[in-house]
Specification:
- The chain contains 14 helices and 13 strands.
- It is of the alpha/beta class.
- The chain has one domain: SGNH hydrolase (Rossmann fold).
- The strands form 5 sheets. The protein has a 5-stranded parallel beta sheet, sandwiched between helices.
- A hairpin with a 2-residue loop joins β10 and β11.
Length: 376
């Protein structure tokens, strides 16, 4: 009798588990179907235009009130660069300008026009005017190509070329979230641009979104786990493909800036996953060695981030439930952008080449277009 009761109990448990698994599966499938139905272009591509060289660039003369929430506006100039006030190509006598290149971290995804790292630099370095020439989704390659093509239009004495770890990974591919982009290669020691003219956007972008939703399902995750490479192995694989190209980009940027009477500074922006030591430190060490070998200044804010108390990190980064615009979570919050500008300003003052530019007595040389403005 006891055995029969035990057997019935086991059968009941198994049936219950099967029913629950079925409900879980149906629920997951329904939620995925709802996500697929709701697919629309990400924030970046709703506010960008197709570009034959870059893949995409910001829409010109754009002003979207409350883009990221109440009072959090998004504004661009005639060239699609984010601005927090009117900007002209020329500079007033005695004024100095810094151009900020980069991706969505430098662009300021999730924050207002005057809350980006680039905008905050003006209050940290009085007398310096800034122009935000960053674009969401850009890799090191696209940020370089945009500056090479259009940077000389704006007089500047300082070029802050900012990037995160993922910008190296973006150099290794010909599309980002389903949108085509150029790719740089080294040929006989020269940088060449491939996949141009960049293919126009197409329905493949929706296919990418559908694939991305499916890949987040637990079934795919379970099937993928045994073959996943470690983060360190993936980083080594990417660097083997793009590192020499990145170094060539940095060297050419230094040359371009010298021709334009401007000082280049490489800026490494850490994200939340780099608060603890990890495989990205190998890449950071390699960047430091490159800087020492070439003399190109590098500011790495990772040690500054690791000096922040762990319980303060939520103040520096946008959490998933804070901003309604998809793609903003994980970026610097307004306070995080202010922190980055403050720490960056401290390091810039310590660089002799930059402190000379920031000095009130420094001569301001004009910058104009040159033959080097052609695309590689």
């Amino acid at each position: 009798m006891g055995r029969k009761l035990l057997l019935r109990a086991l059968v009941a448990v198994v049936v219950l588990l099967v029913v629950l698994a079925g409900i879980e599966g149906v629920s997951s499938a329904w939620l995925m179907a709802q996500e697929i139905r709701a697919i629309r272009p990400t924030e970046n591509f709703r506010q960008a235009r197709y570009d034959t060289l870059l893949g995409w660039v910001g829409l010109p003369n754009l002003h979207i009130a409350n883009n990221y929430g109440p009072g959090i506006h998004l504004t661009t100039n005639a060239d699609g660069m984010r601005i927090h006030r009117p900007v002209s190509a020329a500079l007033a006598p005695g004024t100095r300008r810094a151009i900020c290149s980069g991706d969505s971290f430098a662009f300021g995804s999730g924050v207002a026009d005057d809350q980006t790292m680039c905008a905050y630099l003006e209050s940290e370095l009085p007398g310096l005017e800034t122009l935000n020439m960053a674009q969401r989704g850009f890799g090191i390659d696209q940020a370089y190509l945009w500056y090479r093509r259009d940077g000389a239009r704006y007089t500047h004495q300082l070029h802050l070329f900012a990037f995160i770890w993922a910008d190296f990974e973006r150099m290794a591919v010909t599309s980002f979230t389903g949108y085509s982009k150029p790719i740089l290669k080294l040929r006989d020691g020269r940088l060449v641009t491939e996949n141009v003219p960049v293919p126009r956007w197409s329905a493949t972008t929706k296919a990418y979104e559908v694939q991305n939703i499916l890949m987040r399902s637990r079934l795919f995750e379970l099937a993928r786990r045994p073959s996943d490479q470690s983060d360190a192995a993936n980083l080594r694989r990417v660097d083997a493909q793009v590192w020499n190209v990145a170094e060539a980009v940095f060297l050419d940027l230094a040359r371009l800036n010298a021709e334009r009477h401007s000082q280049l500074v490489l800026v490494y922006l850490p994200n939340l996953v780099e608060f603890d030591a990890g495989p990205h430190d190998v890449r950071r060490a390699r960047l430091e060695q490159f800087s020492k070998r070439t003399g190109i200044p590098l500011v790495d804010l990772t040690p500054d981030l690791r000096a922040v108390p762990r319980d303060s990190l939520d103040w520096l980064f946008i959490t998933a439930n804070q901003i309604p615009v998809r793609g903003s979570a994980g970026h610097y919050s307004p306070r995080g952008n202010h922190w980055a500008a403050e720490r960056l300003a401290v390091h810039l003052r310590d660089l002799p080449a930059v402190s000379a530019i920031l000095s009130p007595s420094a001569a301001v040389a004009p910058v104009g277009p040159s033959a080097s403005g052609r695309d590689p």
